[in-house]
DNA sequence: TTGGCATTAATTGCATGCAGAGCACGAAAA
DNA sequence: TTTTCGTGCTCTGCATGCAATTAATGCCAA
């Protein structure tokens, strides 16, 4: 017969998914695809409202449609993708009121997390928080905005983790990606920066004092303020669309 | 050639999924499968810890493995199913501490929802709540426990819906299925019943008074009490396993 | 020109086939 | 007897093929 047996199964050369190969316990292609797509959506490479055609995407990612479809379903549960029957999925659009609701939800969850964290956080975690806070203030002083954002995110994640509550943490993570989209689209509002750093200091103090009510209220307010500032930043960005 | 053309695509006779055909805007098989599996898991037909073999399940549901796999992924995100690489997925087990964390999370979310609901609930929704409360008290008086549970669930869902916050509602729904599993496994503790009805009355009053702080606190405490009672019921149920 | 209908092209949804990972069972070695 | 390795089987993971649905286009009639 044909001496060259063309393999029908796994081809040898995926395209865009290799970089993740060295790290973990070898995730399935669908998980890798989900992560990759999440990143592409959050960073705006896949524009909001854009149609996600299965054949195009699967070709771009170097995988077949099956794992891609599984990944899209996951992202739909997270709210990053909108699935319509018999039609191409679309990257979810983030309307103004949705951003508002999103930050309300995050504030609710982080308040609960902060209250629990005030009771359960370990000395080591507190030490880590202090360290992150110090770094954040250094970046603030240096005017390094993007490092500030990264640290800000780490701090919030650490507080939620310190609550030792799996379901709460999962809910928080799911909402976080969507909030990140909004954050990227808004104009920098450095006006809020000073305030935010100060609020973080107060939250840290409340956690050190192991005061659940204060920690919860301060963190919820902080998130609320962030949401408000972000909405303003979005309004500005929409007003002058040339400033991409 | 062969006059009998065996159709490779969609066969004509699904098996277990027909009943849902008359209702909605025709969901895909994967969504139907997800709903069906969710129900089977919650009601305990698929026992906790049991392996979910794709070929068996797909045959039982009358669908192929592809949509089944998609459904399993969704349930994994909801935490009802545990996915292990290259192994059969298992129905997630609910350990004691997980139940505790679950109710903490639900309490957190419902507190936030109640606070928002106190500000946003409409007169019509309030009226509906009063009506549900009256029905619930009637079932209570009549000793009809299962109707009481159903109404209890409706009331909680209505309060969350009245908060007008999509992300919060989604997070709540995801957690609810898992809580329902625990509820089904615990022994009836009618001792808590009277207390629970009274707490519901107080929550309704706080919403009518449009008092966010009270509504939030009362609802969170109510959920906390429910969780504690449920843990006790689970401990009893584990102690005498013959009382299935 | 415009409205309605048939036809075609594009794309999703589902079924199935193939390759490899993991587990069980059993034989051989210690 | 216990341990280790090998062999086979079962099951998942992924790729691909077929059918059905939808949107797009052109055609005809009003």
From TrEMBL, chains A, B:
Entries under InterPro entries matching the protein: GntR_C, TF_FadR/GntR_C, Tscrpt_reg_HTH_GntR, WH-like_DNA-bd_sf, WH_DNA-bd_sf
Keyword Transcription regulation: yes
SUPFAM superfamilies, A to Z: GntR ligand-binding domain-like (SSF48008), Winged helix' DNA-binding domain (SSF46785)
Record-linked PROSITE patterns: HTH_GNTR (PS50949)
Domain of life of the native organism: Bacteria
Keyword vocabulary terms for this entry: DNA-binding, Transcription, Transcription regulation
Name this polypeptide is given: Transcriptional regulator
UniProt source species: Methylobacterium variabile
High-level lineage: Bacteria, Pseudomonadati, Pseudomonadota, Alphaproteobacteria, Hyphomicrobiales
């Amino acid at each position: 017969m044909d001496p060259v047996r063309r393999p029908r199964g796994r081809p040898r050369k995926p395209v865009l998914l290799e970089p993740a190969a060295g790290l973990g316990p070898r995730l399935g292609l669908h998980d890798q695809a989900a992560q990759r797509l999440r990143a592409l959506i959050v960073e705006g490479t896949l524009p909001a409202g854009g149609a996600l055609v299965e054949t195009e995407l699967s070709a771009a990612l170097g995988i077949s449609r099956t794992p891609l479809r599984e990944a899209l379903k996951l992202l739909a549960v997270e709210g990053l993708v909108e699935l319509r029957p018999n039609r191409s999925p679309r990257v979810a659009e983030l309307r103004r009121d949705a951003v508002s609701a999103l930050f309300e939800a995050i504030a609710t969850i982080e308040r609960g997390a902060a209250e629990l964290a005030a009771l359960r956080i370990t000395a080591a975690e507190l030490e880590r928080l202090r360290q992150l806070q110090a770094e954040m203030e250094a970046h603030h002083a240096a005017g390094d905005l993007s490092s500030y954002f990264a640290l800000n995110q780490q701090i919030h994640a650490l507080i939620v983790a310190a609550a030792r509550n799996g379901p709460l943490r999962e809910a928080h993570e799911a909402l976080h990606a969507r909030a990140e989209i909004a954050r990227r689209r808004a104009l920098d509002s450095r006006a809020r920066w000073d305030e935010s750093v100060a609020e973080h200091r107060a939250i840290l103090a409340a956690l050190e004092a192991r005061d659940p009510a204060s920690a919860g209220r301060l963190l919820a307010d902080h998130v609320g303020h962030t949401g408000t500032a972000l909405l303003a930043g979005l309004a500005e960005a929409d007003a002058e669309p040339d400033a991409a």
